Amino acid sequence: MLSMGHEHTTPILGWTNVALGLSFILFDVFVSNIFGLGIGQSMLISAFRCVLQLGVVAVLLERVFATENPWAVAGIAFLLNLLGTFEIVVNKSTRRHHYMFPSVLVGLLGSTIPISILGSRFAMSVQPFWEPVQYIPVVGMLCGSAISGMVLTLNYLLRELQDNRDKVEVYLAFGATRMEACRPIAIEALKIALTPVINQMSVLGIIAIPGMMTGAILGGASVQQAAKLQMIIVFMLSSATCLSAVFTTIAVVSVTVDSDHRIRMDRVDDRKHGIWRARERMGKTLMILLKKLVCGWREKGTDTLSERTPLITGE
């Protein structure tokens, strides 16, 4: 628990402040248009998603904090992991394998829930560990870090198994198990997943003041307590990222290399997710219907005009 180190009045922010903050995104869009980056629309969509999602989460968390119900806290924790799974499978992954949704969900739950419980109860000394004000933000941060690790691991493993399939098949041909054959790729994938966390820890404090510590200080907490809390959070993030990457590696290898030691790239799909393909088909269908409707109106207007035009016009 954070102790208050000094009296501090936090300014009350309104939607006007949010609108002013949005001007920074508009600047990014302007730069994108000037240099032809082509990401201006994505920035705007992401910004509005951010506003909508945080607004909804704020309403939900207010009610959960007020009730202090452990089942409500468990529901929010599961919902965060479920939405994180959807984000990984649908939006973030360039390739997908069979049974990816359940395997990612199990990996997220298996990495965020145990770490959050142990960290909150023992490292942060929160009693009970599910105290909503403390536990839910921790789970949210662990989910974000685990998602990044999973995406990096997934994309690297599936790409390497497709591009360097022959190397893995050589190991398999000489009698290696699927875990032994994929060990070099798996080691590199885990390194890639953990590199951002290592870089983050190395620059905290001297070069960068992290968001958690900044928020605690702005909220009026003791600087010493905020620093210790940030240390604990970062260590928990590294553990959750490592666990999620290990879960992902085991799942990918188990699916793409079967028990008969064959690489099954037929279980990997590099197309867009079915949701986006369905949306594109719906968009094309709507455009065709609109074109037919507009053409029909034009033809009807031309026919009406022709019927009203006299055959012989006098001057």
UniProtKB/TrEMBL annotation:
<dbReference type="GO" id="GO:0005886">
    <property type="term" value="C:plasma membrane"/>
</dbReference>
<feature type="transmembrane region" description="Helical">
    <location>
        <begin position="201"/>
        <end position="223"/>
    </location>
</feature>
<protein>
    <submittedName>
        <fullName>Uncharacterized protein</fullName>
    </submittedName>
</protein>
<dbReference type="Pfam" id="PF03649">
    <property type="entry name" value="UPF0014"/>
</dbReference>
<keyword id="KW-0472">Membrane</keyword>
<dbReference type="InterPro" id="IPR005226">
    <property type="entry name" value="UPF0014_fam"/>
</dbReference>
<feature type="transmembrane region" description="Helical">
    <location>
        <begin position="12"/>
        <end position="31"/>
    </location>
</feature>
<feature type="transmembrane region" description="Helical">
    <location>
        <begin position="71"/>
        <end position="90"/>
    </location>
</feature>
<feature type="transmembrane region" description="Helical">
    <location>
        <begin position="229"/>
        <end position="257"/>
    </location>
</feature>
<feature type="transmembrane region" description="Helical">
    <location>
        <begin position="135"/>
        <end position="158"/>
    </location>
</feature>
<feature type="transmembrane region" description="Helical">
    <location>
        <begin position="43"/>
        <end position="65"/>
    </location>
</feature>
<keyword id="KW-0812">Transmembrane</keyword>
<keyword id="KW-1133">Transmembrane helix</keyword>
<comment type="similarity">
    <text>Belongs to the UPF0014 family.</text>
</comment>
<feature type="transmembrane region" description="Helical">
    <location>
        <begin position="102"/>
        <end position="123"/>
    </location>
</feature>
